[in-house]
Design goal:
heterodimer, A: mainly alpha, Rna Polymerase Sigma Factor, Chain: A, Arc Repressor Mutant, subunit A, 2 domains, 10 helices, disordered N terminus, B: alpha+beta, Jelly Rolls, 4 domains, eight-stranded antiparallel beta sheet, 9 helices, 30 strands, globular
C-alpha cells in the first residue's frame, strides 16, 4: 500500500494544535496539504452534476469546525476523508431528489457504480492513478498532447478544436476517445504492475 | 453501425456533454446488459475526470486554498469561535471538575474576553452611527439612483461609493453599475434595472426588474446568497451567473458553478449547471427545464412584440384604427369605409407592429432585448452590423447602443454611436434606416473593452436625452452577419 497523504504527521498535528489554540491561519497548512488528494478522490468518485470543489470545501470547513473532535495523534487523513465521504453522501441524496437526473446527467447504473466505488475506494489509490496517468500522458505524441491541452486545459468546444486541428467534429471526438482509451489502458497496466487494482 | 461503434459514439457524446436524453436511455440499456462494459466505462469516466483535474494550473489550486480559507473565516465569524483548548481539555477530563487554567489557556481566555469587549464596543458604536457598508461601487456609468434604507435618495456618479442596505436603480438603457461586496463578490446591474440589496450574515438581493450579472465568491452553505425576482428565487453558494427579470418571467444563465432556481408559483426547483439556462414564468406551469446553451449564431432579427423590454409595442392595426378614427372624426371618410379599410389591413398580419420609445425624466428611450427563451447566443463578429428601421417625427440626435456579455460569462460592456437622424429621415414617410458596423461603436465607459467583437449581443437601445423629440418608433432591429 502506498503512503497516505498523512504520511508526515508531525507538521499536520502541529497545525492542528495551533488551530485548536485559536490560530485560524494555521489551518491553511492543512488545506494546502489535503486539497489535492481530496479533490482527486472526489473527482473520481462524484457523479456528474456534483460540484467537486464545493464538496471538498465543505469537508475542509466541517473538519475545521469540528477539529476539537479529532483525536490528536490518530490518522487525520482518514478522519478528513470520512467527513468528505459523508458530505458526498449528502450530495448524492440531493441528486436523488432531482426527478430527471438520470436522463440529464448520468445513467442510473453509472451513478450507482460510482457510488459503490466511493464506499470502497481508498483515497491513496486515486492519487496513485493520477501519478500513473501523468506518466502515461508523457508517452503520448505531441499531436495527441495538443488535443488534451485543447480539451482539458483550454476547455475549447469541440467545433473550435475541429477548426484548429483541421478535422471534423466527429474526427475530433474519435481522436479524444482514442487518447482516453490509450491512457486508460496504460494506467491499468501500470496499476497492475504496481500491484493495485483500479 | 455496429453495436460497439454505437456505444463508442454514445459514450463519447456523454463525456463531451453532447448526449441527448434518448442517448442517455440507450447508454443505460447498454450498461444493464453488459457489466464489463459498465466497469470499463466507469474507469473511463474516472480517467476523464483525472485529466480534467490534472489540467488545472497552480493558480486554480491557489484560488481553491484562498477561497476555502476565506469561507472558513466567514463561517467562523458567524458561529462564535471554534472550541479552544480550554473546552477540549475540560471535556476530556470528563469528571465534571474544572481543570486548572494553564498559562496558555489563561492568555487565550483573556484574549477572547478582550476581543468580545472590542467587538461589543465596535458594534454598539456602529449601530448608533450607521448601517454597515456591505459593498462598494467599482464601475459606474449613466444615471443611477441609490435609495438608502432611511429613504434618502442619492444619485451615484462615482466609483468607490460605499453602499449599505438599500435600493439601486439604473435609470437609462446605457446605465450600468458594478459593485463589489466585502467578500469580493461582484454584481453588475445594467439597463433599466431595480435591485434591493441587504446583507446581515447573508446576501439577499431582490431584482424587481432588469439585468443582473454576478460573480459570487463561495458563500456559507447555511447562508447562501439569495436572489429573489417575481417569478423565481435563486440559491447561490458561489458561481458566475446572469439573471434577466421581466414582468412575468425570469431567465437564469449559469456560466460556472451551480445555481438552484425555485419557481415562485409552485415551488418547483431545478439545479442549473454551467452553460445551461432556465426560464421561470408566472404563467407557465410546465415542468421547469434547464436547457443547454447551443452553439453561437451571428445574426438575429428581433420580434418586437416579445423582445421590447422597455417601450410600448403597438400592432399596426391599432395605429391604423387611431388614424381611421381621426379621419372619421374630421369628416374625411365615412365610418363604413373606415371599418372596411381596418378589416382589410387587419387581415394581413396582426403580428406586425412597432416599438415606441417611452418618455421618462431622463429622456426618451426604447430597449430591445434578445428573447429570454433563446438558447443560442448571438455572437458579434468583425463584420457584424446593426440595422434599425423605424420612424422619427423630429430630426434630432439619437444614441444607438448595444449591451454585450462575455461568451459564457458575465456582463461585458456597453457600446454606442451617436446618429444624426436629420440625415436619415425620409421627410415624406418619416422612415429611417440606421446601419452601423459594430466595430465602429465606442465603449460607453473607459472600463469596458475597446470593442464588442467576440462578445454576446444581449440588448440594444435607442435614446435621446430629452423629451423634446416627440415620437420615435422602431419597426425592426437586426444584427447582420455580413460574411
Amino acid at each position: 500500500m502506498h503512503e497516505s497523504p498523512n504520511h508526515n504527521n508531525r507538521p499536520i498535528e502541529q497545525a492542528i494544535s495551533r488551530t485548536l489554540a485559536g490560530e485560524t491561519a494555521a489551518f491553511e497548512f492543512i488545506v494546502r496539504q489535503f486539497e489535492r488528494p481530496l479533490r482527486v478522490w472526489l473527482a473520481t468518485q462524484a457523479p456528474p452534476a456534483i460540484d467537486v470543489d464545493d464538496i471538498a470545501q465543505r469537508a475542509l470547513i466541517a473538519a475545521f469546525s469540528q477539529i476539537d473532535e479529532y483525536q490528536q495523534g490518530s490518522n487525520f487523513s482518514a478522519w478528513l476523508f470520512t467527513i468528505a465521504r459523508y458530505q458526498l453522501k449528502s450530495e448524492l441524496t440531493r441528486l436523488r431528489r432531482i426527478a430527471d437526473y438520470h436522463t440529464r446527467f448520468a445513467p442510473e447504473l453509472l451513478q450507482r457504480e460510482l457510488e459503490r466505488r466511493s464506499n470502497n475506494s481508498a483515497p491513496e489509490l486515486q492519487q496513485l492513478r493520477l501519478t500513473q496517468l501523468k506518466s502515461c500522458v508523457q508517452s503520448l505524441s505531441e499531436q495527441e498532447n495538443r488535443f488534451l491541452v485543447w480539451r482539458y486545459s483550454e476547455s475549447l468546444p469541440l467545433d473550435q478544436i475541429a477548426s484548429q486541428s483541421g478535422r471534423s467534429v466527429a474526427a475530433v471526438k474519435k481522436q479524444l476517445w482514442k487518447i482516453r482509451r490509450r491512457l486508460q489502458d496504460c494506467v491499468e497496466r501500470r496499476m497492475a504492475t504496481a500491484g493495485e487494482t483500479p | 453501425m455496429t453495436k460497439q461503434n454505437d456505444f463508442k459514439d454514445l459514450w463519447n457524446d456523454y463525456l463531451e456533454g453532447d448526449i441527448t436524453s434518448e442517448g442517455m436511455v440507450k447508454l443505460q440499456d447498454y450498461f444493464a446488459r453488459d457489466e464489463q462494459l459498465l466497469q470499463h466505462s466507469v474507469d473511463s469516466f474516472q480517467i476523464h475526470r483525472l485529466l480534467g483535474y490534472e489540467a488545472q494550473d497552480n493558480d486554480q489550486h491557489e484560488a481553491f486554498v484562498k477561497s476555502t480559507m476565506s469561507q472558513l473565516i466567514t463561517e467562523q465569524e458567524q458561529t462564535p469561535a471554534i472550541n479552544t483548548s480550554v473546552s477540549t481539555q475540560t471535556a476530556a477530563a470528563g469528571d465534571g471538575r474544572l481543570q486548572p487554567l494553564t498559562k496558555r489557556t489563561l492568555i487565550t481566555t483573556l484574549a477572547l474576553a478582550a476581543s468580545i469587549l472590542i467587538a461589543l464596543v465596535y458594534y454598539s458604536n456602529f449601530r448608533v452611527a450607521k448601517s454597515p457598508v456591505i459593498a462598494q461601487t467599482i464601475n459606474v456609468h449613466g444615471t443611477i439612483e441609490w435609495t438608502h434604507e432611511n429613504g434618502m435618495v442619492e444619485v451615484i456618479t462615482e466609483t468607490n461609493q460605499s453602499l449599505t442596505g438599500g435600493t439601486l436603480e439604473t435609470m437609462t438603457g446605457d446605465s450600468t453599475v458594478t459593485m463589489q461586496f466585502t467578500d469580493g463578490t461582484i454584481v453588475t446591474l445594467d439597463g433599466l434595472s431595480l435591485l434591493t440589496l441587504s446583507e446581515q450574515g447573508q446576501k439577499i438581493l431582490r431584482l424587481k426588474r432588469g439585468n443582473l450579472s454576478a460573480d459570487v465568491q463561495p458563500q456559507p452553505h447555511l447562508k447562501p446568497m439569495m436572489v429573489f425576482t417575481d417569478a423565481a428565487e435563486l440559491r447561490v453558494v458561489g458561481t458566475q451567473f446572469n439573471v434577466n427579470a421581466r414582468n412575468e418571467s425570469t431567465k437564469l444563465t449559469v456560466n460556472e458553478g451551480e445555481v438552484l432556481l425555485k419557481r415562485t408559483t409552485d415551488g418547483e426547483s431545478v439545479n442549473v449547471i454551467p452553460h445551461h439556462q432556465v426560464v421561470a414564468s408566472l404563467r407557465d406551469a410546465r415542468q421547469l427545464k434547464s436547457v443547454k446553451r447551443a452553439n453561437q449564431i451571428h445574426s438575429w432579427k428581433c420580434d418586437l412584440q416579445s423582445e421590447t423590454s422597455y417601450g410600448k409595442w403597438l400592432p399596426f392595426g391599432m395605429e391604423l384604427a387611431n388614424e381611421l378614427k381621426l379621419a372619421v372624426a374630421n369628416g374625411e371618410m365615412s365610418q363604413a369605409a373606415a371599418v372596411r379599410a381596418y378589416k382589410k389591413a387587419a387581415s394581413l398580419n396582426d403580428q406586425q407592429g412597432s416599438a415606441w420609445a417611452l418618455p421618462s425624466r431622463f429622456g426618451l428611450s426604447v430597449v430591445i432585448s434578445v428573447n429570454q427563451q433563446a438558447t443560442v447566443p448571438v455572437v458579434l463578429k468583425q463584420h457584424s452590423r446593426i440595422r434599425i428601421t423605424g420612424r422619427g417625427y423630429s430630426a434630432t440626435d439619437l444614441v444607438v447602443g448595444i449591451t454585450t456579455n462575455e461568451i459564457d460569462g458575465g456582463f461585458s460592456g456597453k457600446f454606442q454611436e451617436r446618429i444624426d437622424l436629420a440625415e436619415l429621415i425620409n421627410p415624406e414617410t418619416q422612415e429611417f434606416i440606421i446601419d452601423i458596423p459594430i466595430q465602429t461603436m465606442s465603449p460607453s465607459n473607459s472600463d469596458f473593452p475597446v470593442s464588442p467583437i467576440g462578445s454576446e449581443f444581449v440588448a440594444c437601445w435607442c435614446s435621446h436625452p430629452t423629451n423634446k423629440v416627440t415620437k420615435i418608433e422602431l419597426t425592426s432591429v437586426e444584427i447582420i452577419d455580413v460574411e
